[in-house]
Design goal:
heterodimer; A: mainly beta; seven-stranded mixed beta sheet; 0% helix; B: six-stranded mixed beta sheet; 51% strand; globular
Chain lengths: 114, 114
């Protein structure tokens, strides 16, 4: 089954404790992206990647890191989480070429930073 | 600045009635336009897109959307609403010069009452 998986789905942590949210897709998509969703703000892009070893900042990259060492994986790293990073996070992927560029989303990771 | 507006935070419709969820955009050129749906505790799912051609596009679950270039709108419609259509709906726009990035609306909560 074609899908984007994220782990963990729920995470409660404390300020300053490094964490990683994993994202993996099995559709051979070139493009991957991380978003955060906050009430009334819609989706805001954190980072994106056009292909392996190619990453770039989105609209709200502060406090986050990413890497793209393999095509299928795109982990999101919070080196020192703070309470304002409490949010619902989504990973998404898509093809780049032609019309096949609707994004496929993972199920989301609900993060609470105390 | 380029933007996408969903002017209604919430839309209430009686089951069986037609529904419309509004989206207007302000971007340069001829963008790609998308609608996504988010059911409770789920990731976003692609509904439909407009790339070019017929202004009325059909998508999943009986939804359709009408592109209006002069009004820069892309309203989502369904002739007869179902209770199961209750969800959060997002409009997204990909400007042609965007490096594949999407600009997202804030979302509209659709409530279908029996």
């Amino acid at each position: 089954e074609a899908q984007v998986t994220q782990n963990p789905r729920y995470l409660i942590t404390v300020t300053g404790k490094k964490l990683t949210v994993t994202c993996s897709q099995n559709m051979n998509h070139e493009y991957m992206s991380w978003y955060r969703q906050d009430p009334g703000l819609g989706l805001r892009q954190i980072y994106y990647s056009m292909n392996v070893e190619v990453t770039d900042k989105g609209d709200v990259p502060e406090g986050y890191k990413v890497s793209r060492k393999e095509k299928r994986n795109f982990p999101l790293i919070l080196e020192s989480p703070s309470p304002n990073q409490t949010s619902l996070y989504f990973c998404a992927s898509s093809f780049l070429a032609g019309d096949y560029n609707e994004q496929f989303f993972g199920p989301g990771t609900r993060l609470t930073v105390l | 600045a380029q933007s996408v507006a969903q002017p209604e935070d919430q839309v209430n419709v009686a089951e069986g009635n037609p529904l419309t969820v509004k989206c207007t955009y302000s971007v340069s050129g001829n963008p790609y336009l998308f609608w996504y749906v988010q059911y409770p505790n789920r990731g976003l799912q692609f509904l439909l897109k407009y790339i070019t051609g017929d202004n009325l596009v059909k998508g999943s679950y009986g939804f359709e959307a009408e592109f209006n270039k002069s009004q820069t709108s892309f309203h989502l419609k369904k002739p007869s609403a179902l209770v199961s259509d209750s969800a959060l709906y997002f409009c997204a726009v990909r400007p042609m010069d965007s490096n594949y990035q999407l600009i997202w609306g804030a979302g509209t909560k659709l409530i279908i009452k029996p």
